[in-house]
Amino acid sequence: MRHWIFGLSGLVAASLALPPTASAENFSLWTRSDSSTFMPKLVDAFNASQKEHHADLQIVPVNELVQKYAVATAGGTAPDALSLDLIYTPAFAAAGQLEDLTDFAKSLPYFNALSRAHISVGTYQDHIYGLPFSADGSVLIWNKKLFKQAGLDPEKGPKTWAEIRSAAKKVNALGGDVKGFYFSGNCGGCNIFTFTPLIWASGADIFSADGRQVTLDTPQMRDAIAFYQGMVRDKLVPAGAQTDTGSNFFAAFATGKIGITPSGSFAIGALATQSPDLEYGVTPLPGKDGGSSSFAGGDNFVVSKGTKKMEAVKAFLQFSYSLEGQKLLARNGSLPIRSDIAKDALEGLDSRYLIAAEAMAKGKTPYTTVFNDLFNSANGPWITMLNTAFFGTPESIEPAIQTAQSTMQSIVDTAP
After folding, report:
1. Does the keyword Zinc apply (predicted)?
2. pLDDT at 30
3. Is there a contact between 18 and 44 (Cβ–Cβ < 8 Å)?
4. How far from 316 is each of 86, 100, 106, 132, 158, CA to CA, in Å?
5. Among 22, 107, 67, residue whose Cα is nearest residue 82
6. Is 392 exposed, middle or buried (0-12, 13-18, 19+ CB in 10 A)?
7. What residues have CB less than 8 Å from 235, skipping those under 6 apart?
8. 3-state percent breakdown (helix, strand, coil) of the chain, nearest 5
9. In contact, 291 and 362? CB cutoff 8 Å
10. What is the pLDDT of residue 209?
């Protein structure tokens, strides 16, 4: 889900240092540019690990990958394999463009330890077309220094919505340019990533299990929107949040002037680099009265229909799933996707990564073949509902939900 946070541009072709041997089976592999911190290192390590196979990596700008892959599949020039934003797996599976990986997946001895959310969106009509590859998860982070100044326990993160609002109010009372809470109020992708877990953790969902029925019309959705609206109304949120399309999703908290914000596991590494002196805590996103959830983001590994390089592709994926591969991913920006070795993979790293990994492992990912139309579109029904209701009056919540419910259902009804 990081594609709406980091708008990278420019096509980069990865030219790997180690040439294949004469007997090696080359396979082509694409990845999106916001995986460039770990994918080249993983590919280099794989290529160096054995002589039988060799991966040829191409890095594609994040905002171009889906369209580029769609064009390539239609024209018969698709890569053998692809690290694909997991939310798009159902659409490509439904279009018949991916290899069925069911038998291979279930033959893996650690299959049951792989991220269930990734597999859920990688499954179409009871067949697995996408397997977990990289991961991030949504979490709640708080500024320990501001908590201490506000008389709060800096080591204790909020566990309910009431605790979030109470802490935000106390931090806000510090005055000046300090604010209690922040979210990007005009960013559909940001809010599917960080707002939806509040609904999940409270016992509701936004879709039926098969993705065919929209279920926005719930008490939990009304309560969650009212929760955010209340903080806006009490001026605990900066005014600029209303128009923020994601540019300040991470940057606002990094200034040290925000008490609490929902964010992602990527923030741990980013804060270490950009704001090394910022003291902060990480905790799962809570339900109204407790519990927790997370949006399981990242990539699924998919294989283009008709590839002749399946053995090489399988070898690469198995290397990625090894402890060596999981450690390499963890040290370069991805959460582990194998729960059975997550602690080992994260050993020696910031302990907050383990909190995020455990949250992600229990998280969910919305299942739909029309994710872009529903959630990522700048004028789509999801963000229109939230922006209207978050920054409106209590009376605006019900019509906003009903309009979004109807519009989203009509889009889903026309989907494959």
Report:
1. no
2. 98
3. yes
4. 18, 17, 17, 13, 41
5. 67
6. middle
7. 172
8. 45, 20, 35
9. no
10. 87
